[in-house]
Design brief:
With 322 residues, the protein is mainly beta. The chain has one domain: membrane protein fhac: a member of the omp85/tpsb transporter family (Porin). It is 0% helix and 65% strand. The chain has a 16-stranded antiparallel barrel. Strands 12-13 form a two-stranded antiparallel ribbon. A hairpin with a 2-residue loop joins strand 16 and strand 17.
Amino acid sequence: MRFGLNLEDDFQGDGHYNAAARLVLTEINQLGAELLTDVQIGTDPRIFSEFYQPIDATRTWFVAPSARIEVRDLPVYVNNFEVADFRDREAEADLDIGRTLGDWGEIRAGYHRTNGETHDRYGDPALVEPTYNIGEYFFKFSYDQLDNIHFPREGQSFTVQWDGNRVNLGGDVAFDKVTADWLMARSIGRNTILLWTSAGSTLDGNFKPTDLPEFYSLGGLFSLSGLAPTSLTGPNYAIARAIYFRKIGHGGEGFFEFPAYIGASFEVGNTYERRSDINFGSARKDGSIFIAFDTLLGPLYLGSGYDQSGTAGYYLFLGRTF
């Protein structure tokens, strides 16, 4: 049993609060099956359960059916000003088949089926489709050799995923998506630099502006820090970040003695209607400064972010959920 806590507030009336618990039952049968269940309450309530079943004696190949029910906020922004807010509810069933790659990676493929519905809390209800359906094949490759999940000092991680939504699988619109994420950490003494880039592209499909739940989003700490969370949306996105932090405290044996860091980031990115629009000139340039602590509840960040348009964001971020 593990517990997680996430508190995020921008000091401008937009706060998110979630508490979660994870229960993992291991070695259920002779092949080493596991049952993982997450329960989250708060701003974004969520229930997720996956049954992980190795299918050979070496536990290299596996099958992993799962189910998820989740509720989240879906704000609509115009020029970084929130003009509407929706509540989005999703129910998803997955069937994954995969292979572990030692202790450094994994490949997965399978079928995902999602039903979603939205309702407006305020603003024009016609801004977002009231229902949507996703039925897709997917393939995902993951590599992870980072030495720390919260404040990595050495190593790399990389993921790439293809999703193929099809009408005959239950989706509303046929489209393909490719998403990639790469992070590298390097340190000299107490100083660490993170180079982190993420991108996603919708290869085809006739999306409308009201297909908001299926879009990528940017905004928030380290994702264009001067903008409100999820304030930019679109069928394509790209962002690159350089994050520097310096360890200024070693921590100790006391309950409130945690490793401490100061740092800054520079971020370049945007969301785009067309892939051909992706270039440095059309990207937004943001930055942030922060102080952080590696606490028993997870990372604690106090920081402020700034956008090239002159907008600013202020953040209190504590902990993480799974």
